[in-house]
Design a protein that fits this description.
The protein is an alpha+beta fold. It is about 40% helix and about 30% strand. The protein has a single domain, classed as Transcriptional regulator MraZ domain (Chemotaxis protein chec), CATH 3.40.1550.
Length: about 140
């Protein structure tokens, strides 16, 4: 399970150092793709396989299903960290996520999300304002 939030910076070649505990959980290789909300998703191979199976079950005749599958798979790339724990984020993925330098690496249960710092700050500020309402609608939290 991935959890926690870490801030790192891209180097001049577009490489990002992932936290060691996330690298261990992601394994080698792992998959990085476009995510929702203009972030990137990183999946261990086992979780990517589960997602792939679910997506293969979507009806091919539905335009929205085809579009979503294209969105995820066309941006996907297998990543292998170098000896320093850095992974190259391809330019199209960095452009999609509006990443220039500062990146927030977030553990979200079965995946890791990569956010540009400004987008993460804007997202969390907006989400914080409605967090209680969201939780009330979606989750029955134990006390």
């Amino acid at each position: 399970m991935f959890m926690g939030e870490f801030q790192h910076a891209l180097d001049e070649k577009g490489r990002l150092t992932l936290p060691a505990k996330f690298r261990e959980g992601l394994g080698t290789p792992f998959v990085i793709t476009r995510g929702l909300d203009k972030c990137l998703f990183a999946y261990p191979q086992s979780e990517w396989g589960k997602l792939e199976s679910k997506l293969q079950g979507l009806p091919l005749a539905r335009a929205d299903a085809r579009a979503f599958v294209r969105f995820l798979f066309s941006g996907a790339t297998e990543s292998i960290p170098d000896k320093q724990g850095r992974v190259l984020l391809p330019a199209p993925l960095r452009e999609y996520a509006e990443m220039e330098r500062d990146v927030v690496v977030v553990g979200v249960s079965n995946r890791v999300e990569l956010w540009s710092l400004p987008r993460w700050q804007a997202y969390t500020a907006e989400a914080a304002a409605s967090f209680a309402d969201i939780a009330e609608k979606l989750v029955d939290l134990p006390l």
